[in-house]
Design a protein that fits this description.
The structure holds two protein chains of two kinds.
Chain A (H helix, E strand, L loop, with lengths): L7 H24 L9 H10 L3 H10 L5
Chain B lengths: L1 H16 L2 H21 L1 H7 L4 H6 L5 H24 L4 H6 L1 H6 L5 H35 L4 H28 L3 H22 L9 H10 L8 H26 L2
The chains are: A mainly alpha, B mainly alpha.
């Protein structure tokens, strides 16, 4: 399957979801104090940006401290 | 009642502020739409993986019922994990940060405190499952030209009841235990154990709420609702009520 053959219309929503999750994860990360994040903030930036879909989910579930 | 509404609004606002209202439904939507897409492209995926074109064609396309059931089972594994991990601190975290004390010094009943939290969790759960099922329905419509919205939504609703029960267990544990990781682990382990025992004992566990997952699948298939569906719904509702009562009692003891 070539690059041009991919039916992007089908995948666009998935990509959009991924982008939205990535952006809100980064916003949340940016707003937070160093102490309110488990592990280093820089590490989380990499995880959120590089790991597709799972990265932001991991950040939201286990990356934030004192979640209530 | 107005005190309850105020607490409920506080919970909703908090879930919106820490983006729970955005990310949990989005994850379910992603789970819901990935499923029909991967099914649709399965022959090409297999070919790219080195399976011969002739062999790939032999694999039957799953029916739309099977695709919906598979979506549901993904909510049951990944979705359940997401809920357990994101709600584990719902009371324990507030106790640790001291905000629970701040709320409860005011003339607020413990029952209101717990049920408002439960209602907020339930709203998110219902929204997430509905959105995921709508996603599956939409892609079934586009890719397979199959209109299954109503089946997807009804089965999703039944499945959501199982997830809500698990959320109630997480809520109770959150009142009893301190370590958030332990709370998530115990509630996931409980769900796994209940499903396992239900499968092993068969008829003796006919009442088990974990059978809701199978019943949700049956609703989609032509066989229609099983005989036990309403029994299971009633039992699950009763269990949720018991869990909430226990959680109220536990929070009264722990938070004082």
């Amino acid at each position: 399957m070539k690059w041009q053959d991919v039916n992007w219309e089908l995948f666009a929503p998935l990509i959009a979801i991924q982008v939205v999750l990535l952006i809100i994860a980064l916003i949340d990360l940016g707003r937070r104090d160093k102490d309110a994040v488990r592990g280093s903030k820089l590490l989380w930036v990499f995880v959120v940006v590089l790991v597709n879909l799972i990265g932001p989910v991991l950040y939201f579930t286990v990356g934030r401290k004192n979640e209530s | 009642m107005s005190a309850w509404l105020l607490l409920f609004r506080k919970e909703m606002l908090e879930s919106a502020r820490n983006f729970k209202w955005i990310w949990i439904p989005l994850v379910f939507l992603a789970l819901g739409i990935t499923n029909p897409i991967t099914t649709y492209f399965m022959p090409e995926i297999l070919q790219a993986g080195g399976v011969a074109a002739e062999a790939a064609k032999l694999i039957p396309t799953p029916t739309s019922e099977e695709i919906i059931v598979k979506s549901l089972s993904q909510y049951g594994t990944l979705g359940m994990l997401v809920f357990a991990l994101s709600f584990m601190g719902i009371v324990a975290g507030e106790r640790q940060s001291g905000s629970a004390i701040m709320v409860l010094v005011k003339p607020v009943s413990y029952g209101h405190y717990i049920t408002s939290k439960w209602a907020a969790m339930t709203c998110i759960t219902l929204a997430a499952v509905t959105l995921g099922q709508l996603g599956t329905g939409y892609y079934m419509n586009v890719l397979f030209d199959d209109n299954v919205y109503s089946e997807a939504l009804v089965s999703g609703l039944v499945y959501a009841l199982w997830l809500i029960l698990l959320n109630s267990i997480t809520l109770l544990l959150s009142c009893l235990m301190k370590a958030p990781a332990g709370i998530a682990f115990v509630s996931v382990a409980f769900a796994a154990l209940l499903s396992l025992v239900t499968q092993l004992l068969g008829d003796a566990m006919r009442w088990s709420p974990s059978r809701l997952t199978a019943e949700a699948g049956r609703l989609v298939e032509d066989s229609g609702a099983g005989d036990d569906l309403w029994l299971l719904v009633l039992i699950t509702a009763a269990l949720i009520a018991i869990l909430l009562t226990l959680a109220t009692a536990a929070s009264r003891r722990m938070l004082r």
